[in-house]
């Protein structure tokens, strides 16, 4: 396990690598840092450039620096590659090399991985394994023939030693997060360590391709009836921890010029990318959370094809409802309702003022409706939202990180196809449809029916729950008799979840009474 010294050394080498590869100069130029600040930065960085890593000289400087530093940094660069409004066109042009044009590892190592995974039967299933056609930060893809049927397939193979490399990078991220929490107490509200832990859990899934295969299979089933959207099928016998075999798809990359030449409406395609993401998030609660250009293709008929299912996001039913109402409130300019949803969801502490928060939300939403579509930026909106919610004590919600990040990426991809794409106009029919189907009278009746089923299954346990409730009430009464300050609500979860269980029982009893009244 790496210690603080090694993490400090790695951070030092990160800066040195930026200097050695020339990325430091590119960033200073793009950010227009001039005068004495530029001289000071260069004076500090220049002497230490020799300690940096070389990286691949075939890559442009920024991509070269991130690639040299490890897979976690490459993932970060892939996200930024869709945000020219954040980092500038020059840097975006360099970061796009990180999507699927990284140096591949030798074909012999891929063949060895197949034999290690499947043994001799590997070549009974697969034939004519070709040179890699795409090489990313964690794996690369080879064309092959599926011998049982003669069909062409795509074989994805993890890079050698990738797990150890990634854990090293994540260790450095943890070190930074914990240091921030210790040295800068104000950052604890953002829960940087929890954010890193969430990021680790998501990306570590990419390191077991059986999990990616399961995600692809589920995603395909969910979207099989979606108009002009397709997910390749999984070849399960050719899938293991280090190897994933998928249906081969013939399609073009998300290159605006190629798409234009094929006669495909770029604005329509950009809107469909946004709408498909929202449809999957709201309808299914399961969405592709890494929708950059390298993971999307377009068929000749305009069908959008998704690839690479290592990073997927999930939302439970309650979170989906809150998310949809927040989006709908911004679209319809109902800031009071957006504020109420934040309080109902527990995103903002209950002791804050609903109207004051609604006013802050209005200051975020109104400029959106008054700007030209080319000036509306989801990245800027989220930054402003974070700035305002900080004043109201809103903590970072780790379960929403992937959702927010994917919204930024999706908007960037859509804008790369057509700068006129308006994420709010594209989102409106999907969100309105979901609201209509899931928050109307029919949904209320369906929810009550589902609750009745749950209560009926718990019927035999109700006498025991009632007895436990009496015991809990007696315990609370005893504590109260000891003194007005004897009951410490912070101890309740440690005492068997006293308060949550009591509230859950009371809520269940109220619902049961409502259902009985309706019947």
TrEMBL record:
What is any one GO biological process for this UniProt entry? ubiquinone biosynthetic process
Region forming the signal peptide: none
InterPro entries according to UniProt: ABC1_dom (IPR004147), Kinase-like_dom_sf (IPR011009), UbiB (IPR010232), UbiB_kinase (IPR050154)
- The ABC1 atypical kinase-like domain, residue ranges: 98-342
List membrane-spanning regions: none
Q: Kindly state which keywords UniProt assigns to this record, in alphabetical order.
A: Cell inner membrane, Cell membrane, Membrane, Transmembrane, Transmembrane helix, Ubiquinone biosynthesis
The metabolic or biological pathway listed in the UniProt record of this protein is:
Cofactor biosynthesis; ubiquinone biosynthesis [regulation]
Q: One Pfam family name from the record?
A: ABC1
Q: Identify its protein family.
A: Belongs to the protein kinase superfamily. ADCK protein kinase family.
List the protein's name.
Answer: 2-polyprenylphenol 6-hydroxylase
Organism this protein belongs to: Thermohalobaculum xanthum
Gene designation: ubiB
